[in-house]
Amino acid sequence: MEQMDKSYIISQTEIFVKEQLGQDTTGHDWWHSDRVRNTASAIAEIEKADAFICTMAALLHDVADEKLNPSKEVGLQKVHTWLTSHLTDQEQISHIMMIIETMSYSGGGGEPMSTVEGQVVQDADRLDAIGAIGIARVFAFSGAKDRPIYDPGLPPRDESLKEEYRNYSKGTAINHFYEKLLKLKTLMNTTYGRQLAEERHEFMLTFLDQFYKEWNQGDK
Tens digits of per-residue pLDDT, 97-112? Predict the structure, then answer.
């Protein structure tokens, strides 16, 4: 595929993703996809991964997210239909779809990525879930799902059970740090992804320390 064709397809993909996610208020909006794309590009350069595959998968990954569709199958079909109308290379389509199908956290129990491109995009997505932006996103998501900020009487759940993890009526924003976010550092695939995760992980720990300090300010 010529470079100009790739640039055109990427620009069309951007338009499509903005149409699909532009009104999202849960932290899975266009800007999340854009950040994941940019981070994936940076990691891909170091890891010598296919930049086009990484870019396309990063941009499209949340269009298929089951949290934003009636089901995972409906979301994946939406992405597949769009890809087949814009790409002719079946290997590229299959590769992008494989990444999107595999990259979901799903309680941390999903299949490992089989390609370096998949590892790159998965790391980029996980990096956007931690650090300062990750903190902002978890509270945005919790507010959108009517979950409280914190309840000392409600301990974190064992989110390894996917069905329970997807039950958003339970849990709190603070619990989500322990159910998912603080685990992501050890799940990074690439060396550079692990390096980037260190600082963001430490920032979350600092935030939690300050949160509990303020929460318990009046306790004797």
Answer: 999 988 865 544 567 8
Q: What is the pTM of this model?
A: 0.89
Q: At how many degrees (to 10) do helices 30-47 and 116-127 cross?
A: 130
Task: Annotate 85-108 with DSSP letters as a single string.
Answer: TT---HHHHHHHHHHHHH---GGG
Q: How far apart are the first and last CA of the chain?
A: 67
Determine contact, residues 58/40, Cβ cutoff 8 Å: yes
Residue type, 182: L
pLDDT digits (tens, 9 = 90+) for 56-94: 999 999 998 877 777 888 889 999 999 999 999 999 999
Find the DSSP H helices in the chain: 3-21, 30-47, 51-60, 72-84, 90-102, 116-127, 131-144, 162-165, 173-179, 191-215
φ/ψ of 216, rounded to 5, equals -95, 15
Report the length, in residues, of the chain. Answer: 220
CA–CA gap between residue 172 and residue 174 (Å, rounded)? 5
User: What does the angle CA 8 – CA 14 – CA 15 come to, to the nearest 5 degrees?
Assistant: 95
Q: Are 36 and 56 in contact (CB under 8 A)?
A: no
Q: CA 105 to CA 155: how far, in whole Å?
A: 21
Distance (Å, whole) CA 130 – CA 171 = 18
Question: 164 falls in which pLDDT band (50, 70, 90)?
Answer: very low
